[in-house]
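Sharing a chain and its predicted structure for anyone who wants a worked example. Both blocks are below, sequence first, tokens second.
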Amino acid sequence: MAIRSACCLALIALAAVACGRDARPPADLILANGIVHTFADSKSSNEGYTAIAVSRDRIVYLGDDTGARAYRGQKTRWVDLEGKTVLPGLVDAHGHLANLGRSLEEVRLVGTTSRDDVLQRVRDVQADIPPGQWIHGRGWDQNDWADATFPTWRDLAGTEANPVYLDRIDGHAMWLNRTALEACEITRATPDPPGGRIVRDATGEPTGVLIDEAEKLVEARVAAPSDADLDRRLTRAIAECNRLGLVGVHDAGTSEAVLASLRRIGQRGALTLNIYCMLESDEPAFVRAFFAKGISSEFDGSLVMRCLKLRADGALGSRGAALLRPYQDDPGNEGLLVDPPDSLLAWTREALRAGFQVGTHAIGDRGNRVTFDAYQQALSEVPTNDARLRIEHCQVVDLADLPRFASMGVIASMQPTHATSDMPWAEARVGNDRLAGAYAWRTLLDSGATVAFGSDFPVEAVDPLWGIYSAVTRMDHEGNPPGGWMPGQCLTAEEAVRAFTVGAAYAAFDENDAGTIEVGKRADLTVLDRGLLTIAPREILDTRAAMTIVRGRVVYEATR
């Protein structure tokens, strides 16, 4: 990628010389009368730039409107931004495209306020579905209900005509109705699978909730989506990302089927997003085939495969995150290690030998520690100059382990909206003392660690502006708690944007081509309808993407 970028710069320079100082090749697109923040140096205050010229997929000019006119030709599209703000293209460093596409089609449970609310939404969908067909939904969170205990199959009474399975908002717990339990033959005699748990009542009977790896007991029974289903869902997910200003996504757990679908979409010319694939370790033969042939880049770099996704533990909301001490509100529970330490080590060692990056899901302090230990051991056995190992989420980290991000060069891939979603109950889960290392963006930045931001969609909303708002305020959308939750960890708007741009580019080995606005770099740009770096924090939620440009192509443009 670095070589390609250097070649582009050379070609641009040669073209300028060949055409003379005042006669430049016409640009395809010119953005003028805007406020451009380049993020090309340590500060991103407005440098006075108002215009950008784009030729094919590259930025060929950065300056004022007068200078941009030299690049205007008969076929150039000239866009008067009318004072709008231009940022380097925003990238979500941790999302799930297939799950997003699926969530756009199925029972949506985000924001439900009770078990009865969930039941009614399922019944509404069930009215249009033939008996016997599986019904799937996602987004429930018992922490939002008056009774914050886990639901049971009894709470879905009246839905027995269909097997129903509903993913918790974090994807780490699944709620089944009685028909689904029976279809999957889950009984009191069914053992807990490694890395998973079947929630049971006092008599040992399954309640209808499955944690982490136990979810596979259901997934094995449900028919896989067809190629047409996957293509449709991923196309919708990509369009939704573009609409919200995203030029790229790090897809955290790309399966063989999803990759095949993305390739089909790319062959149709509809891949309007830069996708950095984190290959799904649950499919070892698929992963090792890539290890054998090496890093792969397709569709002019729009689809890159060079990272392996591992999972150390579960999620905090479902009490599956692995902790060094038991949960404050569940004293007999220390969470779950999904991939045991020896597996984390073996996979990391294998990936490093193949020249691949590793990104490991780790939420609890124990999950983070075993990940660091596996990384440290693997690096000692396979010395690597630029491994850029990542920890995904790193929500609760022991204070003794926080310095390891900077000292080991491990990237903290974090999601700001997790903090504002979890803050009503996080202290109840882990106690006040462990919060000192929780959602610690400021501490990590100040330590010299690289932080890349994302959303973990569809666990959280896709909109990157919601993440920026959470990072800046640590408040919910109603402004609570006043002053922010653990406000010492708040970031500036500039720092938050940098994590969605510069940090995300670095996390994908893409900093020579993207992450900043510079002549010769890829024309990945996000145009916002107001000055994100200067407005009051509350206004961030009112900010909208006005235009999304990916590789010089306008892939989204808001209507007036």
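Comments welcome. The chain has 18 helices and 24 strands.
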